[in-house]
Amino acid sequence: MAEGGALDRVDLNIQDISKGVISTLTPDTTASNFGKMEDGATHEDLTIGVLNMVFQTIGMMAVFACRNDSVKDVVLTGTLTLVPFAKKVFQALHKMHGVNFIIPKNAIYATATGAALSYFKRGQTK
To answer: How far is CA 49 from CA 3, 73, 85, 102, in A?
Structure first.
């Protein structure tokens, strides 16, 4: 559903609020999620807007955590990594902040694998 949506109908971007160039921000950088809700916004537009907000929030929280601990790599796992739009958002955040967002092969299984390994490790310590 999100693939048919247009962010420029729901999100306010830098180009919407500034005519000049800001050296560290591209014109399509989000200034405000859902800050530009147009009357003609469709369900698809709202869907891509929600995904953009969720992925940007996850990404920025990771960026802040990385800055706090001088870390440059973040490994993303879970089913949301399958959403094609996720890669676009995390690539943009990488360009802006220099944090490497890594989506490993079979990332959707990482949580289950980690839980299983934790279970077996816990059993070995008893």
So the answer is: 11, 26, 11, 23
Total domains in the chain come to 1
Which pLDDT score is estimated for 24? Answer: 82
CA–CA dist 21, 33 (Å, integer): 20
CA–CA distance, 26 with 24 (Å, rounded to integer): 7
CATH code, 89: 3.30.420.40
pTM: 0.83
- Identify any residues that bridge with 74 across adjacent strands, giving them in sequence order: 101
When pLDDT is cut at 50, 70 and 90, the band that residue 100 belongs to is very high
Q: Which domain holds residue 87?
A: 2-124
